Prior knowledge:
- The complex is a heterodimer.
- By secondary structure, chain A is mainly β.
- Helices cover 0% and strands 50% of the residues of chain A.
- The radius of gyration of chain A is 14 Å and the shape is globular.
- In chain A, 30% of the residues are buried.
- By secondary structure, chain B is an all-beta fold.
- The mean pLDDT of chain B is 94.
- The chains are: A mainly beta, B mainly beta.
- At the A-B interface, strand 4 and strand 9 of A face strand 4, strand 5, strand 9 and strand 10 of B.
Amino acid sequence: GESVGLHLPTLSVQEGDNSIINCAYSNSASDYFIWYKQESGKGPQFIIDIRSNMDKRQGQRVTVLLNKTVKHLSLQIAATQPGDSAVYFCAETLNTDKLIFGTGTRLQVFP
Amino acid sequence: DARVTQTPRHKVTEMGQEVTMRCQPILGHNTVFWYRQTMMQGLELLAYFRNRAPLDDSGMPKDRFSAEMPDATLATLKIQPSEPRDSAVYFCASGLGQGLPYFGPGTRLTVT
């Protein structure tokens, strides 16, 4: 599959543990944020999103936290599974169609 | 299961050749994006369209790249002439209005 990046930060977790992936975004005025998951050989897939008027949003096994004071976004994955292994990107946008992507974090899940 | 389709999935070509990548957006989506992914630059927005009209192509090298939407079901990205530095994975994504973009599987381009 396509190689996303050789120099990505990597998070290694044991199966069953919780994972926390962090992202620093660039524009303090951004009002919409998205987390994408990219598996080898595939395009980015939507995981969860959050608007700037919220600081937390939960999905199935995933939670996104937004701290606008320090321009920080995090993705929490509960009970991490081997199928969660992928590269995770945060993306931000300000009332436009232009999604600006972060550099990505590689999540490795080991048994 | 609606999804964005892209062809070809892989393309190897020699420097100087013309390359055309095609994308079929999800039926009913009126916004189409072209992104490029490289190891060094990550995911970059090249251009996007709404209702077939180009809204922004500031991320695209104008001298060799061109993007069009001949109709609502087809978007094309053309490189002429191609160069080795164009080697990357090119993603098409589609969305409804300013809604969430859904990505296709990508075209992996290698220019030798």
